[in-house]
Amino acid sequence: MSSPPSPYLGNPLAIVHVPKELQESLSQSQKLKIANEFNLSETVFLHEGDPDGPIKIDIFMVGQELPFAGHPTVGSGWYLLSTHPSKETIILRTKAGDIPVIRGDTGKVQLQVPTNFKIHAPIAHPRVKIFQPRLVAKDYTNGLEGPEPLASIVKGMTFLLVELTSEDALARLQASPERISVTEIGDWGSFDV
């Protein structure tokens, strides 16, 4: 576990070492169960490998795997550099791409985060607005049936950009745990509602 120096502050991160001999037998669904058991914002699985090569990591939050997330990537990079004082740089291999992590002058780390930003064609996805029982057609700039733009920061992390007509509508918006697949965008994946 990675945590701040003062109790009850910060955002703890679970880091699980996966030795070479377990990498084939530990499935993604098992990793998800482990992450759910930790019940933290994120859990990182560090895969043992070539000491001079990229270090593969899998990032999970409760309920799903993520191709990239800042907090666990920074935490993993800091942890690895703090346990390998002779190294100035390591490479983390995420599903979003390789991320160089560089030791800073004051013990902090710097990352070069991969981005592959893409704005997709707007889509009308009827299920999206159904998940908002406290909103009505006039709350949406494009109405209940109107298309909304999609944006991806990396493959697999796509967000629907829904414009609302008022702050009152925004106050009535509810988070939903549902993920929706959008076949129209191919391997760019799904998005959270």
TrEMBL record:
Annotated GO MF terms: isomerase activity
Gene Ontology CC entries for this record: cytoplasm
Top-level taxon of origin: Eukaryota
Protein name: Phenazine biosynthesis protein
